[in-house]
Amino acid sequence: MTSDAIAVRVPRRSAAHDLRALKVVLHREMLRFLNDRTRMVSMLIQPVLWLFVMGTGLGTLVSGAIPGLDFRTFMYPGMISMTVIMTAMFSAGSIVWDREFGFLREMLVAPVSRTAIVVGKCLGGAVVATGQGIVILALAGAVGVPYDPVLMLTLLGEMFLAAFTITAFGVMLAARMKNMQSFFGVMQMAIMPMMFLSGAMFPLANLPSWLHVLTTVNPLTYAVDPMRQAVFGSLDVAPQVNAMLNPGVSWFGAKLSIGLELGLVAAIGVVLLGVAVAQFRRAE
């Protein structure tokens, strides 16, 4: 007896297929976030508490040292960063869920490049995290930050850049992990020290040498500082207060420009994206 073989035609990979895959992954990330209202609220609780509770409490201690400025205004850029960073990392961690439930394997065997999948994931996480950051952005007036259109657009762009870089970092970590417990453990171990050492909660001026070195080598410092520079640029504060709370980042005594800081964040994001793509190409 003879049997007839059934030919199966697998579509060839093309730029159009890759672009469609990128859009699908991005759209899926947005739908997943919008349908998870518990996650949306929980991601806002911590930064809001830090901003209004901790910021008010600490403000009573330093009010005499910073006349004419609410300490919550100083903390505001850091809390935007915290919101964006935590949301971006949780978005990246969904890869582990996809692996556990088999959806990731279906994406990896599809006739599209894994680069498109990773880029779509990073863009999706960046869009979601930026959207969450807009909620904190809307609270600007409550902490003495003006609703200046140029300032809002500047912060929006800086939020997206930081969110993309952090999502790429999270995707790189999640690419080889098998369960969420491991991912969350590594995330806390990596993100919390970086957050505390970024200058989000304390000024970078007059730090001890060892702490200055740690803040300088911390990539998140270069995401937080441009936001603070933008906020303080829209305020009318005394020069001595600005020098104390908004000194900028210096290398060997030379202050870095905002453009250079943002360029460093973008470069780090591209490198992390490349590593994440390489990880996915080896994934099964």
TrEMBL record:
Signal sequence annotation: none
Keywords: Antibiotic resistance, Cell membrane, Membrane, Transmembrane, Transmembrane helix, Transport
Top-rank taxon, per record: Bacteria
Sequence intervals crossing the membrane: 40-62, 74-97, 118-144, 150-175, 182-205, 256-278
InterPro entries in the cross-refs: ABC2_TM, ABC2_TM_bact-type, ABC_2_transport, Nod_factor_ABC_transporter
Ranges where the ABC transmembrane type-2 domain occurs: 38-283
Molecular functions (GO terms): ABC-type transporter activity
One GO term of the biological process aspect: response to antibiotic
UniProt GO cellular component terms: ATP-binding cassette (ABC) transporter complex
Chief subcellular location: membrane
Membrane topology: Multi-pass membrane protein
Localization per record: Cell membrane; Membrane
Family listed: Belongs to the ABC-2 integral membrane protein family.
Designated name of the protein: Transport permease protein
Species of the source: Spongiactinospora gelatinilytica
Lineage, highest ranks first: Bacteria, Bacillati, Actinomycetota, Actinomycetes, Streptosporangiales
